[in-house]
Amino acid sequence: MENKTAIIAGASGLIGRSLTQQLLNSNQYSNVIALVRKPLGINHPKFSEVTVDFDGISDFVDFPQGEDIFCCLGTTMKNAGSKEAFFKVDYTYCYDLAKRGLQAGADRFFLVSAMGANPKTSNFYSRVKGELEDQLSFLGYRTIYVFKPSLLRGDRKVFRFGEKLALIITRIIPFIGPWKKYRPIHVDKVADAMVKVAKQDDKGFYYYQSDIMQKM
Ligand SMILES: NC(=O)c1ccc[n+]([C@@H]2O[C@H](COP(=O)([O-])OP(=O)(O)OC[C@H]3O[C@@H](n4cnc5c(N)ncnc54)[C@H](OP(=O)(O)O)[C@@H]3O)[C@@H](O)[C@H]2O)c1
User: Fold this and answer.
1) Which residue range is the domain that position 40 belongs to?
2) Mean pLDDT of 99-112
3) Which residues contact 147 (CB under 8 A, 6 or more apart)?
4) What is the pTM of this model?
């Protein structure tokens, strides 16, 4: 077992729950620390959690030390209630987490972004995600890995009408040729790709699209 520590934010979410389990199962990490708003109820010898108010993450003195930071934070426009509130979670919290983690000694940052993220697009959701990807690259991490999943499949605890409807519609679409990358991807596949990529020893900024993750 390698003596590394993984820090994960968003561990209670759809991807985050799967990723936390896969990090705990991986022999790359001897410690997995989740930054949480409320306890997750995970009982595992490698697991610990730190309660965090993400509004104050930049000045959080007890930020844990770890080499790798995994960010699975995110909200929806519906849950956030406004563009400003959405931006706060999907951009500010993620950016501040990366910055604070770097100060605490991390040297690799793993971000779950989204397919189509682009700082120049007129679509607000995709633009926020794209701006975050862009700005992270200037922070000074040795390595940044950005995962850009298509629509996620998985066992979501709360019902999201739009997501459910989109998943039903995608069942009748063939997704062949250039459309393959739009095929919904299971969260376990994304988490598995993230843990596999973590075994690499790269330096720089790397993107992983859904179609690549499906094949890993
Ligand atoms: N869903 C999709 O189809 C899809 C597709 C492509 C990309 N993505 C992106 O993938 C990422 C993960 O998606 P997901 O579906 O796994 O997300 P999710 O299930 O909604 O989980 C989001 C996570 O973010 C945390 N979070 C939300 N609002 C917060 C706040 N105000 N303060 C602190 N933490 C907060 C949640 O913590 P709490 O439990 O404490 O609320 C949770 O751990 C997101 O960035 C999303 O945009 C999603």
Assistant:
1) 4-208
2) 97
3) 110, 111, 112, 113, 190, 193, 194, 208, 213
4) 0.94
